[in-house]
Amino acid sequence: MTVTIKDVAKKAGVSPSTVSRVLSGHPRISLETSRKVKVIMEEMGYTPNMMAKSLVSKTTNSICIILPKPAEELFSNLFFMELIRGIVTQSSRSGYDVLISSGANEKEELEAVSRLLKGRRVDGVILLYSRKDDAVIDFLESGGYPFVLVGRSDRYEDILSVDNDNIMAAYDATNHLISMGHERIGFVSGPPNLIVSRDRLEGYRKAMQNKGLEMKAEWIVEGEFLQDSGYRAMSFFMNLPNRPTALVAVDDMVSFGVLRGLNELKYKVPEDLAIVSFNNIPLSELSSPPISSIDIGIYHLGYTASQVLIQSIQKPDNHDGYTNRFVIPHRLIVRESSMYTPGKQ
Amino acid sequence: MTVTIKDVAKKAGVSPSTVSRVLSGHPRISLETSRKVKVIMEEMGYTPNMMAKSLVSKTTNSICIILPKPAEELFSNLFFMELIRGIVTQSSRSGYDVLISSGANEKEELEAVSRLLKGRRVDGVILLYSRKDDAVIDFLESGGYPFVLVGRSDRYEDILSVDNDNIMAAYDATNHLISMGHERIGFVSGPPNLIVSRDRLEGYRKAMQNKGLEMKAEWIVEGEFLQDSGYRAMSFFMNLPNRPTALVAVDDMVSFGVLRGLNELKYKVPEDLAIVSFNNIPLSELSSPPISSIDIGIYHLGYTASQVLIQSIQKPDNHDGYTNRFVIPHRLIVRESSMYTPGKQ
DNA sequence: CTGTGTAAAGCAAACGGTTCCATAAGGAGG
DNA sequence: CCTCCTTATGGAACCGTTTGCTTTACACAG
After folding, report:
1. What is the CATH superfamily name and number for domain B166-296+332-338?
2. Using one digit for the tens of pLDDT, what is the confidence trace for A102-143?
3. Are A153 and A193 in contact (CB under 8 A)?
4. Each residue's pLDDT tens digit, A57-110
5. Domain boundaries, chain B
6. With a 7 Å cutoff on the CB, does A50 touch strand C?
7. Would you state the CATH architecture of domain A166-294+332-338?
8. 14-33 on B, CB < 7 Å from strand D
């Protein structure tokens, strides 16, 4: 059978309480006893039963990641994988285990979260999305459970969240194109209900306005975070009478679609159309030409989210009400897709 | 406070045991009582405490995924994300939670596994690799813990594993190139201690021998499952006096590296070098040109692994000793990177 | 009317820890 | 020499479930 704290106690000739105290490094245990007990634990191959521990301590030392349902779509996976990698690495450094969960729909998601949290299987939750209205967030808030959002929430001001400054990031991306000499710049956005889409669009607008550049309505196209959206946007743009010489795309996948389309039509990048996009996924540097991209530090995003969550689990009172939004820095990686000044031969 | 089984019992005017039995659908509970209790549970928002349940039932309804130690790098490979997706989907269908874990080195991995299993935090483990000698496997076997290997183990015959027929897969890949008219075919392998590397190499050899084609030693290069390996292999191959006209790469990531290198040197794919690789990760069709790849059903691999593990947890005795190796079918996806017959103009 | 069988529910002992409170043994101070 | 304090340890209740064993309450046969 498995060896329990009582077995160790008996063999060491002490009481279970003493063994427990040795385990937790209680100060009032003599060095001698402590050493003796530790030797015996080692000898007997004792490992504490986490369930029993959790039962009394009401703490599990584990957290849970909720994947959004469109994570099922293969494309976004590279992004999520990086995020998870950051979370798992940091969690395990803090001695926490990570549980991953996802539901087929929002109702299932809510059920899972509720079961895990109310059933005391995890101490907190990381949400890998920022939807506009969300039953899961409502549940977490009203239940007072520790959780953090990767992404920004506009509805709830006091929620812990880890995010980029996407407005600034888009501003930087656009500005880069402007500084290369572009004046007619298009924008391919994502779904309008995602906050990230809107933030990036806003950054683009700001940059254009700032330089007093014209923004035709037709230069802004909505799509998904998918290749196809880029493909369609491209063919739309290229048929415009006074078409853009450059574009900002909300996601690298979109750029790939644009690239594919331009390639089919024998257009050249960046000569016929310069491109900058977001996320800097590993493939961005592998396309031809390599794509300029805003690196948003995905791994770092996950790492920080875990850190913030665990901190909030351990000292729930430490929340000062100010620093509840953590912003991960971004940086522009300039590659071939944007290295061209229009009009130049 | 959280509502317990006792609270429900009191409010319903029954004993805790009765509530427990209602919960588990015990036969000797009157329909009337059952209904009454269920209403009250609903009213009070009762959720069973998993820790308490686990403590007595010695079962956690969760499993654990162990990521290989170079997870930091390999993680970036979409392969693992797909695998995890399959595992999580199937597990949640079976009512199991999934914990993901990894260590900085083999010792840490072993510690984590031991802590989780002996500490009764998980019921079983899925190993996402198949190394040659492995302390973790030794531990799992000697402890009699339920586990399954994604990949093949040559050392332990009776281990549950889910795998592809990698020998056949490589045979097919190579044969495809041969049937396109190639005769000088190179092979970029992975780390030699991974069984998958060796199996694929063997399949390549078989195909070459079968057609009586020459296999120069210098046409076989060892590397990692990373882009860089492809990059290096490429530059090595292209400098060979009588260089290969095609190559088989052990992983799609390797192909990306090859592609990048060839692109830099202004070589054309597939005209100057045709490529086929393995895994068919979602990005394979997005590169330019799209890469021919052996689809090994990664998602399916994960899905099956979870199924097999959970089955073995639930009926440990059901193991017949025969069907302990599950083989997931593969299929060749031909794309542009291999659609060229050498010598043709 | 008593004995027996059966369905429904209760009691209490686990499961493996933690922790408050009590206790015993010294040592210091008066 | 007695009291009081400190330090090291033991005892026991408790965390929220499950489950084997009783008990209760009838119904029915003898």
Report:
1. Response regulator (3.40.50.2300)
2. 877 888 889 999 999 999 999 999 998 766 678 899 999 999
3. no
4. 999 999 999 987 655 554 556 788 889 989 999 999 999 999 998 877 888 889
5. 5-44, 62-164+299-329, 166-296+332-338
6. no
7. 3-Layer(aba) Sandwich (3.40)
8. 16-17, 20-21, 23-24
